[in-house]
Write a structure and sequence with these properties.
By secondary structure, the chain is α+β, with helices and mostly antiparallel strands. Helices cover 21% and strands 34% of the residues. Strands 1, 2, 3, 4, 5, 6 and 7 form a seven-stranded mixed beta sheet that branches. It has a three-stranded antiparallel beta sheet with strand order 8-9-10. A hairpin with a 6-residue loop joins strand 9 and strand 10. The radius of gyration is 22 Å and the shape is globular. The model has no long low-confidence stretch (mean pLDDT 89).
């Protein structure tokens, strides 16, 4: 097959647009007031889910086209907790985190009123609360992790310099864990909690 520059130009101009990057996500940290004390509501993700089944999480998910991060966080909370708009009052943005693969995750706090313990079984296995005061007085522990861009088993290692010892790209990251929680709160959920607490304490960590 023989190509001329104009052939290449036509082919590239008619090629489909590059695929959209993995969509960004947003989560909501719901606060419930009980007897004058604030509690944070957590979810245990449904065991039937493809991604992170059984993990402890905050309501959240991907940002749809045309949505702001806050709109996405509130929508996901409504869908997962089976609550309506009037029950959620936004309190502000906590900040932006990066997922393990570099995906942006926007986090927001909101007050949740008149909650009756409802949730969607398709997405949530159960819900539970922990007092905000616990996180104001307990630090997370941090563990080092890494992602290695390593090919699958049948990759032709014998045809590249270094073979299986080739220095594939490694991305280092830290995994926060709150060791005194049961079930264990760790990963992205713990990361959002850490940032939230630091915002409340004016940039300081719990003592």
């Amino acid at each position: 097959m023989h190509f001329r520059p104009n052939d290449i130009r036509r082919a590239l101009q008619s090629a489909p647009a590059p695929q959209k990057k993995e969509r960004e996500a947003a989560v909501l940290l719901p606060l419930i007031e009980k007897d004058g004390e604030l509690f944070i509501l957590f979810e245990r993700r449904a065991l039937s889910l493809r991604h992170q089944p059984g993990d402890i999480a905050l309501p959240g998910g991907g940002i749809e086209d045309g949505e702001t991060p806050l709109e996405a966080a509130l929508r996901e909370a409504r869908e997962e907790l089976l609550v309506n708009d009037s029950q959620l009052t936004g309190l502000g943005e906590i900040g932006t985190e990066s997922g393990p693969a570099g995906q942006k995750v926007y986090a927001f706090a909101a007050e949740l009123k008149d909650y009756r313990g409802t949730f969607s079984p398709a997405e949530v296995d159960r819900v539970f609360t922990l007092p905000l005061s616990f996180f104001l007085t307990h630090r997370a522990e941090h563990y080092r992790g890494s992602f290695v861009a390593r090919p699958i088993e049948n990759f032709p290692y014998d045809r590249i310099e270094g073979g299986k010892n080739y220095p594939f790209a490694v991305r280092d990251y830290t995994i926060p864990v709150y060791p005194d929680t049961a079930p264990l709160i760790w990963g992205m959920t713990a990361r959002v909690l850490e940032r939230f607490v630091k915002r409340l304490l004016g940039g300081s960590a719990p003592l």
